[in-house]
Amino acid sequence: MIIKKDKEINSKKYVDLMGTVGTMGTHMVTHPAVGAGAGYFLDDWLGTKPWLFIICLLLGIVAGFRAVYVDTRKIMRNQDKQDAERYGRED
After folding, report:
1. 3 strand-pairing partners
2. What is d(CA 44, CA 38) in angstroms, rounded to the nearest whole number?
3. Distance separating alpha carbons of residues 76 and 78, to the nearest angstrom
4. Under 8 Å CB-to-CB from 56, ≥6 apart: which residues?
5. C-alpha to C-alpha distances, 6 to 9, 10, 18, nearest whole angstrom
6. Is residue 10 within a helix (H) or strand (E), and if so which, with residue range?
7. What pLDDT band is residue 4 in, cutting at 50, 70 and 90?
8. Segment 17-21 long-range contacts (CB within 8 Å, at least 24 positions apart)
9. Which of 40, 44, 64, 84 is the most buried (most CB within 10 A)?
10. CA-CA distances (angstroms) from residue 26 to 29, 51, 71?
11. pLDDT tens string 38-52
12. Cis peptide before 32 (omega within 30 of 0)
């Protein structure tokens, strides 16, 4: 857990956690934006409007959700490891 028994915050772990959580929101914005931009320029270049735009946008949305999922799993693994150390469990 991030907060120690005497309610002091472990600053390095807290900052790492907040950094990871902060990037999760940017994943949901940047991945679809990059996908849409790439699809737009590919459509313009190849003359396939609007198909590559739609496909790349959907791929960007999927990539954004996947990045959030990976970050969430990382946070959960770290939390499980800290709980095991604190309470002596081997789950």
Report:
1. 9
2. 10
3. 5
4. 35, 36, 38, 39, 42
5. 9, 11, 21
6. none
7. low
8. 17/75, 17/78, 20/71, 20/74, 20/75, 21/71, 21/75
9. 64
10. 5, 25, 12
11. 999 999 999 999 999
12. no
Integer Cα distance of 88 and 67 in angstroms:
31
β partners of residue 9:
3
Which uninterrupted H or E stretch holds 80?
Answer: helix 51-87
Residue 7: what pLDDT? Answer: 52
Flag whether pLDDT at 6 surpasses 70.
Answer: no
* Counts of helices then strands in the chain (DSSP H, E): 2, 0
Asked if 89 contacts 81 with a C-beta cutoff of 8 angstroms, the reply is no
Number of CB atoms found within 10 A of residue 20's CB = 14
**Rounded Cα gap, residues 90 and 80, in angstroms:** 10
Q: Which residue has the tokens 């600053």?
A: 11
What is the residue type of 44? D
